[in-house]
Amino acid sequence: MTGTSRGGAVTLSRGRGFLRAVMDRADRRNPIDPDLLDGLAAAVTAAEDDAACRVLVLSAHGEHFCSGTDLWEASVGEVPSGGTLPYWDLLERLTRTQVVTVALVDGHATAGGVGLAAACDLVLAGPRARFRLTEALVGLVPAMALPFVARRTGQQRAFYSTLLAEEIAAEEAVGTGIADAAGPDGEDLLRRHLVWLSRVDRATVSVLKEYRGRLFPQPEGLGNYAGEVFLELLADPRTRERFDRLRLRRAE
After folding, report:
1. Residue of 57, 94, 138, 161 with fewest CB within 10 Å of its CB?
2. SS3 label, residue 70
3. Would residue 148 count as lying in a domain?
4. Known Gene3D superfamilies for this protein (predicted)?
5. pTM value?
6. Cα–Cα distances in angstroms (integers) from residue 158 to residues 109, 137, 162, 167, in the given order
7. How many helices (H) and strands (E) in the chain?
8. What CATH number does the domain containing 83 carry?
9. What is the domain count for the chain?
10. Domain for residue 170, yes or no?
11. Positive or negative, the Cα torsion across 37, 232, 74, 59?
């Protein structure tokens, strides 16, 4: 790889025909916050602006691919009128951008981290990969992540996984649909896919993804509604009480 640049929550490096965005806060379990969202959005823009780039790879340093939103730090705001929240915007961009987006998950993807992976065109699971939607345990629902997870797994499996906060290990991930391929060496799995993806030109990818979007559209206004559901539950006093009890248990 060449051209590595570090800064903030995401480290970027370039290879032949691809850009790699590495979530780089292993000490904090790579949480979703404004810094991460900005860093990944900038990575999408950089990939789009590079005519030679065909693939954007998302991966992470440490034992956690992404731990989701830090709910104790999350602010309770409002969804812009008729608009969407930044997390939803990023998932939509990963789905629709003209480059192929690949999530290499070789650690824990939790809550919103599952949605981040699921929004990518391909999900590759290394041996340490674990996927778990945990929102229901604290009185939330994965309102923004669920449509992207369900697109992969089917709605009933996504519903089941949410209700039970089911942990899906690497060896099960392909069978559930949350991952497209798994292997004992995540980096080797990625290298092989980059070779295969290099055979498809960017224009073809762009048309294919646009067609997929028309063939399987999201309901109109879903992003706005998903943000409203998330913020409404986050502001609920009962949810805050669950957070406080969980914080106390962790401190004991």
Report:
1. 138
2. coil
3. yes
4. 2-enoyl-CoA Hydratase, Chain A, domain 1
5. 0.93
6. 15, 15, 6, 12
7. 10, 13
8. 3.90.226.10
9. 1
10. yes
11. negative
The dihedral sign for the CA sequence 26, 32, 35, 39? positive
- Side by side, the strands of the sheet bearing 167-169 are 64-66, 108-110, 130-132, 167-169
- Amino acid in the structure at residue 93: R
Q: For residue 97, give its domain range.
A: 2-184
In a domain, 62, yes or no: yes
Count of CB atoms situated within 10 Å of the CB of 80: 10
C-alpha 101/C-alpha 20 separation (Å) is 10
